[in-house]
Specification:
single chain, NADH Oxidase, four-stranded antiparallel sheet, two-stranded antiparallel sheet, 6 strands, binds flavin mononucleotide
Length: 169
């Protein structure tokens, strides 16, 4: 697992090839396997393969959305705040599962933050929900841009981790 985690890097350029249905099922399974506070399961996922919609998702927030410009697959990670007061934590764990499963499948992936991000005067969350016709009862944490990598990055070096952030008491 550590080896897989060190290999995982944010990929923002993808080949113009579809992700197989089998891989999409594995990514969704990984998201659904994520634990949630009180086992409330507040997360809902929206799988988008329509290139036009994915490109429009890129325009839903200010800031870095480059990964969505070439991604053949996007998974929008949302949760219902009425089902859990820790919905954003639950959604972040599910998004992390997707990142790791993408790596395990040999796919590239990048987390595009939506929660607390703006699109001009509007919130990115409402722009994503409007574009995809997602219920207003859900909040959007992030969009995962996924595909076959068209760039390569060095793995993280275990020797250069931020060890000063760890305190042994
Ligand atoms: C909460 C969170 C929000 C992020 N938001 C974005 C984003 O909006 N756009 C983007 O291109 N990358 C985003 N990233 C990816 C980070 O920039 C990236 O994980 C970080 O620079 C470390 O690089 P690595 O993933 O290659 O290890 C986000 C990552 C996390 C965990």
């Amino acid at each position: 697992m550590l080896e897989l985690m060190s290999r995982r890097r944010s990929i923002r350029k993808f080949k113009n090839e579809r992700v197989s249905e089998e891989a999409i099922k594995s990514l969704v399974d990984a998201a659904l396997l994520a634990p949630s506070g009180k086992n409330a399961k507040p997360c809902e996922f929206f799988v988008v393969q329509d290139k036009v919609k994915i490109e429009k998702l890129a325009a839903c927030k200010d800031g870095p959305t480059e990964a969505l410009k070439s991604a053949p697959l996007a998974i929008v990670v949302t949760a219902n705040p009425e089902k859990s007061d820790v919905w954003a934590v639950d959604a972040a764990i599910a998004a992390s599962h997707i990142l790791l499963e993408a790596e395990a499948l040999g796919l590239g992936c990048c987390w595009i933050q939506i929660m607390n991000r703006r699109s001009g005067q509007l919130m990115a969350d409402s722009q994503v929900k409007k574009l995809l016709n997602i219920s207003t009862s859900l909040s959007v944490l992030c969009v995962m841009a996924i595909g076959i990598a068209d760039e390569s990055k060095e793995p993280h070096a275990i020797d250069s981790l931020s060890r000063s952030n760890v305190h042994f008491l």
